[in-house]
Write a structure and sequence with these properties.
With about 140 residues, this protein is α+β, with helices and mostly antiparallel strands. It has helices spanning about 10-20, 60-70, 95-100, 120-125, and strands at about 30-40, 45, 75-85, 105-110, 115-120. It has a five-stranded mixed sheet with strand order 2-1-3-4-5.
């Protein structure tokens, strides 16, 4: 689309990797960084934040989404997720659903630091999201 910033997967993955260095993962040791590119070219970062009460933890993808929304961003081009592990880290189901609120055409780059990478659209990762149309009860 004209006027939109180009998506540089390498640069976005590096931003996610850098963010992941600040992750708080004392229980699992599975550090995750996320970098969410908005339509205005700003990159919003997030990290996973674990908690001794496991359900109270926060995924990096939703942390990046919260930072972006808090910064006034509502439209996104791409998300990079970088994990310290042997396989690329895909967003969990809850993160997929949260991201789908803002559109399903999001490009998702999943990376294992120093290892393989995989790319998909959010629609491919979550083909049947629950959305505003599901709430129309009239």
């Amino acid at each position: 689309m004209p006027g939109l910033p180009a998506v540089d997967d390498d640069q976005l993955v590096r931003a996610a990797e850098g963010a992941g260095e600040q992750a708080y993962a004392p229980y699992s040791g599975y550090r995750v960084g996320a970098a969410l590119l908005g339509w205005d070219g700003r990159v919003h970062l997030g990290v996973n934040v674990e908690n001794a009460s496991y359900p109270a933890g926060l995924c990096a993808e939703r942390a990046a989404l919260a930072a972006a929304v808090g910064g006034g961003q509502r439209r996104f081009l791409a998300l990079a997720v970088a994990v310290e592990g042997p396989l690329p880290g895909a967003p969990c189901g809850l993160c997929r659903q949260a991201l789908a609120e803002f559109g399903s055409d999001l490009r998702v780059v999943m990376s294992a630091i120093g290892g393989p990478r995989r790319t998909a659209t959010l629609a491919e990762l979550l083909p049947l999201p629950f959305g505003p149309a599901n709430l129309d009860v009239r």
